[in-house]
């Protein structure tokens, strides 16, 4: 029987062990999982008495964002990933979220198949990587900033990635984005490390954008999926 529960500090070593080299390039989950546990946003699945999978869920506004689902190799194709996804959706619904979202790399066909079977639909294409630093032509304030974000969100169906954490993408409002970053104009509108256009922005670290242009290092294309709860 698969049991899905909140992760505990003692689960961290097991999760680190099976997430360290998920792909040829490695992974990031083993570096972040301890922090997720301390935040109370980490979950694990147990099968046959051992930790078989791990994931994170964070609530942002009306959206539950699911992240970092990893299944131990020997337990794949046994329904573990689906069980974790459904448990997190149930938890999100109980927390008052009306929508669940997640990102999958466009090449990750097994994960795409899993989330589609779980009722998630693609809503937005994204590009991720390290942006080319570029000074903005100007930044926006007050009503002009809010109006610009309203127009941009109208073009994305209301979806955007967080200015201060661009790998978390949710159903957003102008107010949510303004709490986390300052909108500026470059090759389009961007706020923090998320761009509604190209990735030539004035920001350090990873960024996500709606266009592939402007990355100093492009990681690839990603698909944002959403499911109504």
What features would you describe in this structure?
- With about 230 residues, the chain is an alpha+beta fold.
- The protein has 2 domains: about 5-95, Aminopeptidase (3-Layer(aba) Sandwich), CATH 3.40.630; about 125-225, no CATH class.
- It has 6 helices and 14 strands.
- The strands form 2 sheets. A 12-stranded mixed β-sheet has the order 1-2-3-4-5-14-6-13-12-11-10-7, with helices on both faces.
- A hairpin with a 1-residue loop joins β10 and β11.
- The longest helix has 15 residues, at about 80-95.
- The relative contact order is 0.15.
- The model has no long low-confidence stretch (mean pLDDT about 95).
Number of strands: 14
Stretches with pLDDT under 50, minimum 5 residues: none
Helix residue percentage = 25-40%
Alpha-beta classification:
alpha+beta
Shape: globular
What is the H/E string?
EHHEEEHEHEEHEEHEEEEE
How many domains in all? 2
Strand content: 35-45%
Cα separation of the termini: 25 Å
Total helical elements:
6
Descriptive keywords:
229 residues; alpha+beta; Aminopeptidase; single chain; two-stranded antiparallel sheet; 2 domains
List the helices and strands and how they pair.
Elements: E1 3-6, H1 12-19, H2 29-39, E2 42-47, E3 50-60, E4 63-71, H3 80-94, E5 99-105, H4 109-117, E6 121-131, E7 138-139, H5 142-155, E8 159-162, E9 165-171, H6 174-180, E10 183-186, E11 188-191, E12 194-195, E13 207-209, E14 215-228
Parallel strand pairs: 4-5, 12-13
Antiparallel strand pairs: 1-2, 2-3, 3-4, 5-14, 6-13, 6-14, 7-10, 8-9, 10-11, 11-12
Helix pairs in contact: 1-2, 5-6
């Amino acid at each position: 029987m698969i049991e899905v529960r909140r992760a505990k500090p003692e689960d961290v070593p097991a999760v680190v062990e099976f997430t360290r080299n998920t792909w040829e390039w490695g992974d990031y989950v083993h570096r972040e999982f301890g922090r997720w546990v301390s935040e109370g946003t980490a979950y694990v699945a147990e099968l046959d008495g051992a930790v078989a999978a791990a994931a994170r869920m964070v609530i942002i506004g009306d959206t539950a964002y699911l992240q970092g689902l990893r299944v131990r190799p020997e337990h794949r194709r046994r329904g573990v990933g689906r069980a974790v996804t459904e448990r997190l959706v149930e938890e999100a619904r109980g927390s008052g979220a009306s929508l669940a979202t997640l990102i999958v790399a466009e090449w990750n066909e097994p994960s795409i198949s899993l989330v589609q079977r779980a009722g998630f639909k693609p809503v937005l294409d994204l590009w991720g990587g390290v942006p080319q630093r570029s000074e903005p032509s100007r930044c926006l304030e007050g009503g002009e900033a809010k109006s610009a974000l309203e127009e941009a969100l109208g073009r994305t169906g209301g979806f955007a990635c967080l200015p201060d954490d661009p790998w978390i993408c949710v159903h957003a409002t102008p107010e949510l984005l303004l709490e986390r970053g300052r909108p500026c104009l470059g090759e389009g509108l961007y706020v923090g490390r998320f761009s509604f256009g190209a990735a030539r922005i004035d920001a350090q670290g990873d960024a996500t954008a709606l266009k592939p242009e402007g990355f100093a290092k492009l990681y690839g294309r990603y698909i944002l999926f959403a499911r109504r709860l």
